[in-house]
Amino acid sequence: MSLDLQNILASKRALRRELAARPVSEKLRILDALRERELAIRGRAVHPGALREEPAPYGINSTPTKPA
Amino acid sequence: MDIKTAIAVINQMQADGVVERYAIGGAVGATFYLEPVATLDLDIFVTFESAAGSLSVSPQRIYEYLTARGCTIEHEYIVVAGWPVQFLPTGTPLVAEALKESVVRDVDGTPARVLAAEHLAAIALQTGRAKDKARLLQFVEAGVLNFVRFQAILVRHGLIANWQKFERQFVNDTP
Question: What are B85's strand-pairing partners?
């Protein structure tokens, strides 16, 4: 283990490359786990109604109209 | 809570003719090319075809189809297999092109249609929030972009000045 910043940054880059190279199915499982963790950290039940992430605008009004 | 199941449900919805085509975008789309990017929701770009054959952007049929299969509506999302999904119409020429040129990737036997890396990067540039810029930088640093294709997209959609500004701010200063 080194406290040299350049080594640490290089190690981080290597980890990111290694994660990116994993099979998509494995990366999607990681997404499931990350989402569970994020919700837990926010102190909410695992319930999507708690979601308050700002949707990307994508240059459109992205809020759909709910059915009547 | 299983994103692969959510993708399978959306595949079936497409097979049942509710949407003409879909493609995964946003952070989940980026994860097909980069390291996993933590996110709370799933962005799905869709085109709809009305009975008359003309394109429509009504999500009505999507809501009806999914709620009939036990999915619930939460604010602007539909919860599919535990994942809040937002269905987005192709509101700009860039997004329309991205959906048209999206690609199918295999996820352990489940096909998943996802936006191409170059289009995800261009959409991030166009959207322009801080986290979009961070994602764009990830695409650049990961070396997954075909820069000839990416530049052509930027030219077609008037994003060259945005890119040059981004390059000055972030790429050229990267050690």
Answer: B42, B78
- Contacts for B156 with CB less than 8 Å, ≥ 6 apart: B97
* Helix, strand and coil in chain A, % to nearest 5: 55, 0, 45
> Within a 10 A sphere around the Cβ of B95, how many other Cβ atoms?
25
- Report how far apart the first and last C-alpha atoms of chain B are (Å, whole number): 39
Collapsing DSSP to helix, strand or coil, B85 comes out as strand
**Is residue B139 less than 8 Å (CB to CB) from chain A?**
no
pLDDT confidence of A1, banded at 50, 70, 90? low
Q: Report residue A9 as tokens.
A: 């940054």
Note the pLDDT tens digit of each residue in B22-60.
999 999 999 999 999 889 999 999 986 555 555 555 688
Q: Which residues on neighbouring strands pair with residue B111, listed in sequence order?
A: B106
β-pair partners for B89? B46
Q: Is residue B104 within 8 angstroms of chain A, CB to CB?
A: no
The yes/no answer to whether this complex scores an ipTM above 0.85 is: yes
For residue A42, the model assigns a pLDDT of 83
Any B CB within 8 A of A5 CB: no
Q: Under an 8 A CB cutoff, do A28 and B39 touch?
A: no
d(CA A61, CA B153): 23
Contact by Cβ (8 Å): B73, B64: no
Query: A3 vs chain B: nearest CA distance in angstroms?
Result: 19
Cβ B122 vs Cβ B159: under 8 Å: yes
- Note the pLDDT of residue B87: 94
Q: How far is CA A66 from CA A35, B59, B70, B87, in A?
A: 25, 8, 16, 12
